[in-house]
Amino acid sequence: MSCNSSVIRLCASSVGQAPQAPVHLMPCEIEHNGPAQVNQYFTATTKDQKQDKSVSFRGRGLKGQKISCPQGYTGLVLKEINKPGSDQEDRTVKVSSVFDKMTYWNLETPPNSDDTIVMAMDWPDLAEAIHAPVED
């Protein structure tokens, strides 16, 4: 079994310069790397219903909900500066934008507390609780 020993370096100076940006977590794989006119083709058709949102993307119904990052955490959107020639080479990334909340989308099913992204946002509090000192 091989071990990938490459390193990912973050340009720390890019964190303070990064703008806030809306983030959407989609239930699909989009085979495109690069800018997209998301505001023109996606959010313009969002319908808000209570806390839930619904939209049609390429003819498929999506149900979404906004969730916040755990308190004390900030989400980062990273962009690779120089793409290496192989997966063994070190990588360098910079922060292209930051976010404190995101909209996640399910394919045709309403969002709920059992969704993996919702459970992931609860993990820091849970991890702190299970690793806290135990009192007698």
Automatic annotation (TrEMBL):
Biological process annotations from GO: RNA catabolic process
A Pfam entry, by short name: RNase_H2_suC
Gene3D superfamilies reported in the protein's UniProt record: 2.40.128.680
GO CC field: ribonuclease H2 complex
PANTHER family reported for this sequence: RIBONUCLEASE H2 SUBUNIT C (PTHR47063:SF1)
Record protein name field: Uncharacterized protein
Organism: Oreochromis aureus (Israeli tilapia)
